[in-house]
């Protein structure tokens, strides 16, 4: 299907962060856009305010009539998270409409563009958003499809006037294999999505295939230690082809010096904390230098980067209490989040409120979750958020809880959280998870702001 022929777009699962970016993209192109999602959220409310029709009933009757007729110019996009028995999805399939995954549509959009694709089990959202920010801030420009809401631009879609696109390359369901980048960045390859891949070796194999899809003359940038060949390595922990050194904390911000061959950028300030974010910045800076953007402009852009919502996002920042919200839902993401918080606030007692995401991930990484959650001073563990999955016999958040050694731990239901936090009076609170734990952010903000 050619991009120019698309006049109407229906998205099954429109409320997802990647799907909503596509909805906004086509809406801004002048297409008639509509979609379905299971429940209303802040994001679906924003889409409706922008003029996009959304239904919350998975039935054929909820599809606006105009989307039942225009077969030639109608594109139907779906997310793999939608159940296979979805009446809406199966209607469009059986009726012969053009039905494509979100990743396939990104492949169509980026096909004729200079594509910068960022992949990784962790770090891809922050890194791709930072690259897009640098390109916008320096007026190099780009279009960008982001896996989170940029705090600088308050959106997950940026539109540009040149032929450059930045995309977050999602490994779930091997989606990133629809992309053929000019520059590929690989931030990490930890075992995840084992419900799809089966084992860690298959994850590595898929990432290797992604890196192999570089266009002729393209550039690969990968974190040092990953099993990748023929790419530039980067690190903030050791010497590599591209690296950060002289890392320090000054006035509550991380600073570092960047090195790439004969290029040195000294005293780079990063508003986001943690070694992992310095590594993300190193990859983003190197990507920008490959585009011949002057180093001083890149440095200035990095210093203005405010991050991504729900990625170590400060919600309350007072002397008495600091509250941070984070999307971390894998043991290594939690480890990075906890480490960054402890580095910034070594004197504060850390209370972590964690909601496990997916039964399969909880089962596969119970030991890893328990190990990292042992590092906090106080733990509050919620029930598993199932997302797309049905329950698995014998799997609950208790299998993590029972493996945690320290005594200051609690299990509770979501509706009990506010009362418990009020009683605990935390000094440093982190809420973490990829489920609906974000619905607690505003109530907790109000509670702690008035404490």
TrEMBL record:
Binding, ATP: 120-126
SUPFAM superfamilies per record: MurCD N-terminal domain, MurD-like peptide ligases, catalytic domain, MurD-like peptide ligases, peptide-binding domain
Boundaries of every Mur ligase central domain copy: 118-286
Domain Mur ligase C-terminal: 310-412
Entry keyword annotation includes ATP-binding: yes
Location in or out of the cell: Cytoplasm
Catalytic activity: UDP-N-acetyl-alpha-D-muramate + L-alanine + ATP = UDP-N-acetyl-alpha-D-muramoyl-L-alanine + ADP + phosphate + H(+)
GO cellular component: cytoplasm
GO biological process, any: regulation of cell shape
Domain Mur ligase N-terminal catalytic: 9-109
EC annotation from Swiss-Prot or TrEMBL: 6.3.2.8
Keywords from the UniProt entry: ATP-binding, Cell cycle, Cell division, Cell shape, Cell wall biogenesis/degradation, Cytoplasm, Ligase, Nucleotide-binding, Peptidoglycan synthesis
Principal location listed in the UniProt entry: cytoplasm
Pathway given in the UniProt record: Cell wall biogenesis; peptidoglycan biosynthesis
One function term, GO molecular function aspect: UDP-N-acetylmuramate-L-alanine ligase activity
Pfam families linked to this entry: Mur_ligase, Mur_ligase_C, Mur_ligase_M
UniProt cross-references to HAMAP family, sorted A to Z: MurC
Protein task: Cell wall formation.
PANTHER family, sorted: UDP-N-ACETYLMURAMATE--L-ALANINE LIGASE, UDP-N-ACETYLMURAMATE--L-ALANINE LIGASE-RELATED
Name this polypeptide is given: UDP-N-acetylmuramate--L-alanine ligase
Organism expressing this protein natively: Pararcticibacter amylolyticus
């Amino acid at each position: 299907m050619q991009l120019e022929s698309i006049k109407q777009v229906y998205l099954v699962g429109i409320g997802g962060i990647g799907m909503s970016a596509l909805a906004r993209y086509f809406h801004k192109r002048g297409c008639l856009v509509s979609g379905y999602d299971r429940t209303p959220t802040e994001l679906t409310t924003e889409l409706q305010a922008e003029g996009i029709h959304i239904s919350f009933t998975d039935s054929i009757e909820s599809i606006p009539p105009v989307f039942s007729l225009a077969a030639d110019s109608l594109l139907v996009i779906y997310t793999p998270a939608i159940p296979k028995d979805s009446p809406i999805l199966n209607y469009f399939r059986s009726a012969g409409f053009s039905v494509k995954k979100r990743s396939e549509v990104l492949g169509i959009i980026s096909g004729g563009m200079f594509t910068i694709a960022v992949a990784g089990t962790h770090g891809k959202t922050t890194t791709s958003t930072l690259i897009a920010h640098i390109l916008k801030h320096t007026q190099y420009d780009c279009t960008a499809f982001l896996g989170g809401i940029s705090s600088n631009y308050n959106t997950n879609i940026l539109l540009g006037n040149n032929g450059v696109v930045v995309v977050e390359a999602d490994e779930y369901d091997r989606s990133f294999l629809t992309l053929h980048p000019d520059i590929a960045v690989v931030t990490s390859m930890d075992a995840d999505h084992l419900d799809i891949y089966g084992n860690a070796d298959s994850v590595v194999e898929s990432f290797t295939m992604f890196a192999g899809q570089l266009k002729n003359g393209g550039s690969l940038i990968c974190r040092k230690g990953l099993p990748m060949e023929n790419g530039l390595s980067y690190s903030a922990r050791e010497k590599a082809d591209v690296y950060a050194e002289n890392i320090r904390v000054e006035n509550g911000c991380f600073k570092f010096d960047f090195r790439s061959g004969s290029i040195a950028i000294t005293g780079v300030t990063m508003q986001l904390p943690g070694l992992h974010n310095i590594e993300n910045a190193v990859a983003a800076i190197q990507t920008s230098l490959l585009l011949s953007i002057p180093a001083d402009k890149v440095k200035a852009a990095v210093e203005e980067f405010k991050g991504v919502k729900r990625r170590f996002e400060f919600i309350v920042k007072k002397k008495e209490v600091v509250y941070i919200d984070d999307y971390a839902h894998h043991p290594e993401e939690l480890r990075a989040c906890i480490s960054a918080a402890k580095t910034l606030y070594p004197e504060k007692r850390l209370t972590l409120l964690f909601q496990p995401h997916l039964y399969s991930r909880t089962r596969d990484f119970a030991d890893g979750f328990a190990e990292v959650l042992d590092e906090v001073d106080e733990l509050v563990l919620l029930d598993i958020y199932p997302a797309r999955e049905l329950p698995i016999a014998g799997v609950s958040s208790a299998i993590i809880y029972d493996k945690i050694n320290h005594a200051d731990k609690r299990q509770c239901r979501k509706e009990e959280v506010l009362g418990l936090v009020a009683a605990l009076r935390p000094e440093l609170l982190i809420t973490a998870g990829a489920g609906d734990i974000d619905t607690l952010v505003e109530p907790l903000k109000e509670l702690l702001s008035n404490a």
